[in-house]
Specification:
- The structure is a single chain.
- The chain is of the alpha/beta class and 471 residues long.
- It has three domains: 206 residues, FAD/NAD(P)-binding domain (3-Layer(bba) Sandwich); 119 residues, 3-Layer(bba) Sandwich (FAD/NAD(P)-binding domain), CATH 3.50.50; 109 residues, Enolase-like, domain 1.
- The protein contains 13 helices and 22 strands.
- Strands 1, 2, 3, 4, 5, 6 and 17 form a seven-stranded mixed β-sheet that branches. The protein has a five-stranded parallel β-sheet with strand order 8-15-9-10-11.
- α1 packs parallel to α8, α3 packs across α4 and α3 crosses α6.
- The radius of gyration is 24 Å and the shape is globular.
- The termini are far apart.
- The mean pLDDT is 97.
- Bound molecules: flavin-adenine dinucleotide and nicotinamide-adenine-dinucleotide.
- Flavin-adenine dinucleotide binds next to α1, β2, α2, α3 and β4.
Length: 471
């Protein structure tokens, strides 16, 4: 067998790993991309971002059809063929994962299907059918991602208890669904199941949903979800689940009160943990942070000089685009480029309806750190486009430096917020000031105008809002 020595060995073919491998190959390095899964794309493509957004898109059609009644347009009761639904999602995943494999082949990245772990700081052991048992590398990049957390108290050997992967398979439409955790996954997948016909109850341990989202951005979503979901129960934990024949009995604790309720299925969405187990890290000088992530510096170097790490396995935010960016940085550093991860704004989008999106400094974070900021808002009730869409509940806000007007952060709640936030990212990264946004002509009628008008508010004169002058 030919000697298996690579300049770069990437472990994990998610959005971090495959981006790193492609970049390394483009920079002339002999690169291997190793994943135990037969399909490339990692959590994001196979059981995360892509299937969840496909489901959200399809189920949005159901809600839109229902809400078309305000236009005098009435559809009959929809009939959902779950098998066709699942086939469509699989086809989308299949197309994208094949695309990743084709791109790997075009770049001459060696794809190896195997589980990998470190024998030492320059050797990986592999276990997989038709793979060699070892390969050596000049540098390795760990991109092993994360897996769902299921607390012991909720871990039942019962298929009715699902993590996100199980819920994305859409086994059926449970009449009564309990969602444990009011974070990204709970709200996105809760939205999917509600639209399909489930009665959804969300139980969140903290006093509010989506804990790190500014309260004014959360409000429009929370209000809509209150109308759609059966219940949103805050300050409450699910202490225990009991499997009974007629359902799963959940014990809900809101100290000092305890109650029980029965559900047909339970989705546990209480966070994810980094995949560092059985990686042989003990055979390297890699250290973990107190929360169990792999410790890296701004160049994505671990404490073992030959090994880099990127993506979910190195910490929050656990987002695909952060993983990709870190992957590009790691590959470029290995190729000898002077670069580092120094993003001023990592955007976040919750793909609910309405969507919430933010980037850069948030109002809450500014308050906690005591940083002086000027916050300007533009309510979508004053947007012509939002009115035509019948979705005026949204809000756009900018977090600005009070002296210079420099854009430090942006937040949105409203339909299409996930697309609009890119303007905020660019503004923060380019060091734009409010005037740059206010004087850039935005197309009419679009909700992007709310960004321009929020910026105009900094100067006290948005066209579609009257702000009385202080005498
Ligand atoms: P992953 O994508 O987790 O990939 C890791 C890969 O490593 C896997 O393929 C795994 O098989 C492989 N692996 C692990 N250990 C080994 C080993 N020892 N040997 C070989 N292979 C190994 N993020 C967003 O930005 N937007 C979204 O809309 C979004 N939606 C999401 C929806 C859901 C339901 C979930 C669960 C997550 C979502 N995320 C979203 C988060 C996103 O999926 C992750 O942040 C992203 O996948 C992390 O990428 P990664 O490359 O670090 O690792
Ligand atoms: P999360 O951290 O977003 O939310 C988990 C929620 O569960 C928190 O609000 C937490 O307070 C609550 N919780 C914890 N234990 C609880 C208990 N016992 N009872 C009730 N509530 C409890 O985690 P997630 O929703 O599992 O998502 C994991 C990660 O995946 C996200 O943090 C995000 O990084 C990523 N993700 C991103 C997207 C996106 O970008 N649109 C979508 C899905 C997932």
């Amino acid at each position: 067998m030919a000697e298996l020595r690579y300049d770069v060995a990437v472990i994990g073919a998610g959005p971090g790993g495959y981006a790193a491998a492609f970049q390394a190959a483009d920079l002339g390095l002999r690169t291997a991309l190793i994943d135990e899964d037969s399909q490339l794309g990692g959590t994001c493509l196979l059981r995360g971002c892509i299937p969840s957004k496909a489901l959200l898109h399809a189920t949005r059609l159901l809600t839109d059809a229902e809400e078309a009644a305000v236009w005098g347009i009435h559809f009959g009761k929809p009939r959902v063929d779950l098998e066709a639904f699942r086939d469509r999602v699989s086809a989308i995943i299949g197309k994208l994962t094949n695309g990743v494999r084709t791109l790997a082949g075009s770049r001459k990245v060696e794809v190896i299907q195997a589980r990998a772990w470190f024998k030492d700081a320059t050797t990986l052991q592999l276990s997989g059918a038709n793979t060699p048992s070892e390969l050596s590398f000049g540098h390795a990049i760990i991109a092993t991602g994360s897996t769902p957390v299921i607390p012991d108290s909720l871990r039942l050997r019962d298929p009715r208890v699902m993590d996100s992967t199980g819920a994305l398979r859409l086994p059926d439409i449970p009449p009564r669904l309990l969602v444990v955790g009011g974070g990204y996954i709970g709200l996105e997948l809760g939205t999917v199941y509600q639209a399909l016909g489930s009665e959804v109850t969300v139980v969140e341990a903290l006093p509010r949903l989506l804990n790190n989202v500014d309260a004014d951005l959360l409000r429009p979503l929370h209000q809509r979800l209150l109308r759609q979901f059966k219940a949103i129960t805050l300050n409450t934990t699910v202490a225990k689940l009991d499997a009974q024949e007629d359902g799963l009995v959940a014990t809900l604790t809101a100290s000092p009160k305890t109650s029980t309720e029965t559900f047909d299925r339970v989705l546990v969405a209480v966070g994810r943990r980094p995949s560092t187990n059985q990686l042989g890290l003990e055979h390297t000088a890699i250290t973990l942070t107190p929360r169990g992530f792999i410790q890296v510096d701004r160049q994505m170097r671990t404490t073992e000089p030959t090994i880099f790490a990127i993506g979910d396995v190195v910490g929050e935010p656990m987002l695909a685009h952060k993983a990709t960016h870190e992957g590009l940085v790691a590959a470029r550093v290995i190729a000898g480029k002077q670069t580092a991860f120094d993003a001023a704004a990592i955007p976040a989008v919750v793909f609910t309806d309405p969507e919430i999106a933010w980037c850069g400094l948030t109002e809450d974070a500014a308050r906690v750190s005591g940083q002086a900021v000027k916050v300007v808002r533009f309510p979508w009730a004053a947007s012509g486009r939002a009115t035509t869409l019948g979705r005026t509940e949204g809000v756009t806000k900018l977090i600005l430096d009070p002296e210079s007007g420099r854009v430090l952060g942006m937040g949105l709640c409203g339909i299409g917020a996930g697309e609009l936030i890119a303007e905020g990212v660019l503004a923060v990264e380019m060091g734009a000031v409010a005037e740059d946004l206010a004087t850039s002509i935005h197309p009419h009628p679009t909700v992007s105008e709310t960004v321009m008008e929020a910026a105009e508010s900094f100067y006290g004169s948005p066209t579609h809002l009257f702000i009385p002058k202080r005498s």
